[in-house]
Amino acid sequence: MVSKLHYITQGSTPEEHLENIQRACSSGAEWVQLRLKKLDPKTILETAKKAREITAHFQTRLIINDYYKVAKEVNADGVHLGKKDTCPLKARNYLGKFYTIGGTANTLDDCKKLLEKKVDYIGLGPFRFTETKKNLSPVLGTVGYQVLLEELKTETPIIAIGGITIEDVPEIINTGVYGIAVSGEITKDFNKIGAFHKILKAPSTNEQVYKLGDNK
């Protein structure tokens, strides 16, 4: 099952990424995407192994950005592929059916291509300008999401991404998107994970509400 809240890691060093994964998991993150750029393959593999150890301890799902072979080697839960990365069909052939595969999209055409390739979810954005990504695609905003979702009419989870703050979430969810991916807003304050889950009515929150009601 695809989570409604995706935390995308940040850090100026691999160690910072791992520290932030530890904090995210400790704060209740259910889904973490390890996003490492401009590092050598050995460093990426070693960091991914450590990330898997942390996430496994917390039973948090781990998605590897771009490096689908690393995802398999460290027994991650899946891979997220950018627009210029490996074809999802090639990754699926390599990983098999039990791995989650997501893809990045910005336009209706991007989304349709990913749906044809049977991805498990689509990261659609950016919602607004963000400095975490270079060569940013055109900003969508809530109107952009609404228009695209009305055209797509898909049951494949659409995850909004790109400069999202906690104040944006109700408006974004009202467009019909399934969930959100957040980087900077959570890295600044990991305590916000619980608040995000509450607004998104994520599974863990629903379960807690059910248990509380059960005890009455």
From TrEMBL:
Function: Condenses 4-methyl-5-(beta-hydroxyethyl)thiazole monophosphate (THZ-P) and 2-methyl-4-amino-5-hydroxymethyl pyrimidine pyrophosphate (HMP-PP) to form thiamine monophosphate (TMP).
Domain Thiamine phosphate synthase/TenI: 8-186
InterPro entries assigned: Aldolase_TIM, ThiamineP_synth_sf, ThiamineP_synth_TenI, TMP_synthase
HAMAP family associated with the record: TMP_synthase
Keywords for this protein: Magnesium, Metal-binding, Thiamine biosynthesis, Transferase
Family: Belongs to the thiamine-phosphate synthase family.
One GO cellular component term noted in the UniProt record for this chain: cytoplasm
Entry note: cofactor: Binds 1 Mg(2+) ion per subunit.
Entry's Gene Ontology molecular function annotations: magnesium ion binding; thiamine-phosphate diphosphorylase activity
Residues that, per the record, bind 2-[(2R,5Z)-2-carboxy-4-methylthiazol-5(2H)-ylidene]ethyl phosphate: T130, E131, T132, G163
SUPFAM superfamilies xrefs: Thiamin phosphate synthase (SSF51391)
Residues the entry annotates as binding 4-amino-2-methyl-5-(diphosphooxymethyl)pyrimidine: Q33, L34, R35, L36, K37, N65, T104, K133
Protein name: Thiamine-phosphate synthase
Enzyme Commission number(s) from the entry: 2.5.1.3
Originating species: Tenacibaculum aiptasiae
Taxonomy, superkingdom: Bacteria
Annotated residues for binding of Mg(2+): D66, D85
Obligatory cofactor(s): Mg(2+)
Reactions mediated catalytically: 2-[(2R,5Z)-2-carboxy-4-methylthiazol-5(2H)-ylidene]ethyl phosphate + 4-amino-2-methyl-5-(diphosphooxymethyl)pyrimidine + 2 H(+) = thiamine phosphate + CO2 + diphosphate; 4-methyl-5-(2-phosphooxyethyl)-thiazole + 4-amino-2-methyl-5-(diphosphooxymethyl)pyrimidine + H(+) = thiamine phosphate + diphosphate; 2-(2-carboxy-4-methylthiazol-5-yl)ethyl phosphate + 4-amino-2-methyl-5-(diphosphooxymethyl)pyrimidine + 2 H(+) = thiamine phosphate + CO2 + diphosphate
An individual GO BP term: thiamine biosynthetic process
Pathway per the UniProt entry: Cofactor biosynthesis; thiamine diphosphate biosynthesis; thiamine phosphate from 4-amino-2-methyl-5-diphosphomethylpyrimidine and 4-methyl-5-(2-phosphoethyl)-thiazole: step 1/1
